Amino acid sequence: xxxxxxxxxxxxxxxxxxxxxxxxxxxxxxxxxxxxxxxxxxxxxxxxxxxxxxxxxxxxxxxxxxxxxxxxxxxxxxxxxxxxxxxxxxxxxxxxxxxxxxxxxxxxxxxxxxxxxxxxxxxxxxxxxxxxxxxxxxxxxxxxxxxxxxxxxxxxxxxxxxxxxxxxxxxxxxxxxxxxxxxxxxxxxxxxxxxxxxxxxxxxxxxxxxxxxxxxxxxxxxxxxxxxxxxxxxxxxxxxxxxxxxxxxxxxxxxxxxxxxxxxxxxxxxxxxxxxxxxxxxxxxxxxxx
Length: 290
Known about the structure:
By secondary structure, this protein is α+β, with helices and mostly antiparallel strands. The protein has helices at residues 2-27, 33-82, 96-103, 109-143, 147-155, 164-174, 181-189, 233-249, 266-270; strands at residues 193-199, 202-211, 216-224, 256-259. The protein has a domain at 191-290: Aminopeptidase (3-Layer(aba) Sandwich).
């Protein structure tokens, strides 16, 4: 697409110059054999560049269609992955006083206390299982390979460059199923700490921490849009997130911090002290398939 764009603009510039020079030779300079010879060459060049303009526009149309088809296929794959997201209901179990007021006419206080403890324990076990499923889903998303999508997205540069606003609209239209307002609200409510990076009013990078603040932390969604990558923005996001991790370590110095590195990005996270699994001490990280 970039080569196509260059051919188009070079052809437009050359055809414009040759046309202007040809007009000058025809109407403003005395005709001689040399001027007519030069004019003939210029007209041939003009005709050739017009053919190139038409050809590049045609090829651009075909390439644009193919790219849009490919990018929408990638979006469908991502949609299936994000469709697995479920959100954690972090409500506390009812207090014993509430429990007692409801059942006090049916059982004595000792029996109620035992029943309450059993029910509360079952609830907490179910909550733990739900939370682990959510973490597994986030790990699966973090491990997903999105390189194909970004490859096609990066190539999707229109000949007549769109303004940033129009490019953003295209991006959000493609991801309408992810950037649902309710989903964002729920995800943010379940986030311990998040960090956004802006260029003016444009969001260009993001990262967040989820977990229980005392035993378990998970660094999630370290993202920088492609055109801003390679500028140490991801490094800055990780640095700030790890500063927050140190704050949580004041509560429990032994708190564990996890993350799922995308394929090929492991070395980036190793710079911050993360280690790969499996190794001599730890087994492989695992994901529940269904």
